[in-house]
Each structure stands twice: as structure tokens, then as C-alpha cells.
Amino acid sequence: MQTIEFADRQRGTLLGLAVGDALGAAVEFQMPGTFPEVTSYRGGGPHGLAPGEFTDDTSMALALADSIASVGWNLNDQARRYVDWWREGKYSVNGRCFDIGSTTRSALSRFQETGDAKTSGDPSPQASGNGSIMRLAPVPIRYANLFPGQLDELISYLMDSTRPTHASPQCLSACAYMGLILCGLIHGIDREEVLAPNWQPLLHLKELHALHPEIAEVAAGSYREEEPPQIVGSGYVVKSLEAALWAFHEAKDFRQAVLRAVNLGDDADTTGAVCGQLAGAYWGESGIPAEWREGLARSDMIERALQGLVGD
Questions:
Q1: Which of 221, 222, 296 is nearest to 258 (CA)?
Q2: DSSP 172
Q3: How confident is the model at residue 133 (pLDDT cuts 50, 70, 90)?
Q4: If we measure between CA atoms, which residue out of 120, 115, 70, 106 comes closest to residue 90?
Q5: Cα–Cα distance, 145 to 81 (Å, whole number)
Q6: 96, exposed or middle or buried, with CB in 10 Å at 0-12, 13-18, 19+?
Q7: DSSP strand E in the chain: where?
Q8: CA 142, CA 183: separation in Å to the nearest integer?
Q9: Alpha-carbon distance 142 to 310, whole Å?
Q10: How confident is the model at residue 2 (pLDDT cuts 50, 70, 90)?
Q11: Cβ proximity of 131 and 61 under 8 Å
């Protein structure tokens, strides 16, 4: 039987993703310093969303969660549910797909042609967007029990989760490393230990999978040495992960971490979603400000996903 604290951190990982996504949605594509500082939900942005509404980051995470809860691990089923979101607006906050990255769209088109999600993602380095780390939460939530004793199986799931849409070496390594961190945090391991370059599970990961050099640099702590404007809320998976870790690693609480992330602007919803997963795994659902939890749109959809992944 899992402890309440363990389940609190599992739930916090997905809720943190959605909260960070919704906080950043209104300032997506705006450069840092060109907008009033984000301190709470606000409406507007490129998609004209209401305060507390989320974007594709959360929708794709909900699709992934639904797949895992319904059929177990099946990449083709995951891709089919992403197509349901893209084509029919399922899992969307407002019933339509109003934002989809070009890499994701191309990959899902390929999946519709081939029916093979394992090969539908573009493996080229140029297709290294952050579209698979933004939705990652359901994998470490559901498979946290494989940590640390069955790392090979856990890493396989984490890396496979990106293949339907993003198959570059950068994306494979980013999902492996970030998912490992999330599992450590969900298990209640101290933040400094999990982020240390010599953390034993990280060393084991490197034995199982040669991290892409740029992700290895992030894992070595590149985000500790830099500040904006070197830290950017970019759509590039390496810079996106680095920015989220920068926002998270010294923050005093969930609120500070996620606001640091979204106020980087640019791909603000995704930087917020990635940081929100880390902060939610660390501080748990109980550490997310109540007004943000209560103000989140379509919390019924998120709760259904959590019930499928975590249960009561």
C-alpha cells in the first residue's frame, strides 16, 4: 500500500503539469520583459483562452494517461488517442485542437499512414522539440514502482513514450533523464540528491543509455551556472528542460518555481508544464496553491486521469 505522501506526489506531478501549462498559456510566444509579470491565471494569449484553461501540453498528457489506464503500455494506442485529440478535440479544454506543433502534426500524419507509432516520430536532430517532455508525467506516475530496482524497464518506457512524435536522440535522452528525476522526487528523495551529477540512478541510466551530449550537460548542472538571457524558455527540448530545471532547482516552493518558469516567456506554457511536473513531484498536490488547483479548468478530466493512474 502506498503512503499518502507518495500518492500526493504522484497526483502533484500531473496537476503541476496542468497548472504550469495554464499559467503560461496567456504569455506564450511573448518575449521576457514584454508582458506584465505573471502571478496568477490570466485570460487571453494566442489562443484566447479563459483564465485556468490549458493547452496541448495537458491535452496530450491526458491522452497518454487514458491510454495507460485503459490498455497498459501500447504505443499505437497512445498515438491513436493523440490523433483523437488532434482530429476531434478529445482531451481538449474546449473540445477542439487549437494548437499542435508541426513536428507532432507531421508524426501523427505518418502514424495515420503507417499505423506504426514506434517509427512515426522524426529521428532527425532538427525535430527536437519539447513536445514529449511536456506530456511525460503519466509515465513516471504509473511506473514509479519500477524505481530504482527495475531501471532498465522504466527507462525503456520513458524513451518509448517519445517515439510516436519525437524520436531524435535529444528527445530520447531528455525523456529518460527527466522521467528518472520525476521518479526520484515522487519517491520523496531530496531535490539536491536527485539533481546531483553523481546520483546513482543517473549513473546507472548512463550505463543503459548514452545520454545525448547536450542532455548530459544539463544533467551535469548547466542550469546552475547560467541566468536569463542564457536560460531561455525555448521550444528546443534541451533548452526547455534546462529552463525548467533552472526555475525549479533553487525555488522555495511550487509557486516560485512555476512562476520563474512561465515568466521566461517564449514557449511559456511548456516551460511551465515541464517545471510544474518537477515541482509537483517534489512538493506534491498539497504544495500547489489552492487557488490554482481550484481555478484549473476541466478539473474533472484531470481527476479522471489521476484515478486511472493512481486510483483512490
A1: 296
A2: H
A3: very high
A4: 70
A5: 25
A6: exposed
A7: none
A8: 10
A9: 7
A10: low
A11: no
Identify which of 281, 308, 201, 299 has the alpha carbon closest to the alpha carbon of residue 6: 281
259 neighbors 20 (Cβ within 8 angstroms):
no
Assess contact for 103 and 170: CB atoms under 8 A: no
**CA 119 vs CA 96, 122, 191, 211, 306: distances in Å:** 27, 8, 35, 20, 29
Distance CA 159, CA 177 (A): 9
222: number of CA atoms within 13 Å, CB side? Answer: 18
**Phi-psi sector, 89: left (phi>0), alpha (psi -120 to 50), beta:** left
Burial of 207 (0-12, 13-18, 19+ CB in 10 A): exposed
Closest by CA position to 166, among listed 78, 62, 277: 78
Contacts of 69 (CB under 8 A, 6+ apart): 142, 305, 307, 308, 309
Rg of the chain (C-alpha set): 17
Nine-digit cell at 237?
A: 527540448
Measured distance CA(120)–CA(76) in Å, rounded: 10
pLDDT digits 0-9 by tens, 168-218? 999 999 999 999 999 999 999 999 999 999 999 999 999 999 999 999 999
CA atoms within 13 A on the CB side of 54: 33
Q: How many Cα atoms within 13 Å fall on the side-chain side of residue 144?
A: 25
- Cβ atoms of 243 and 268 closer than 8 Å: no
Give the pTM. Answer: 0.98
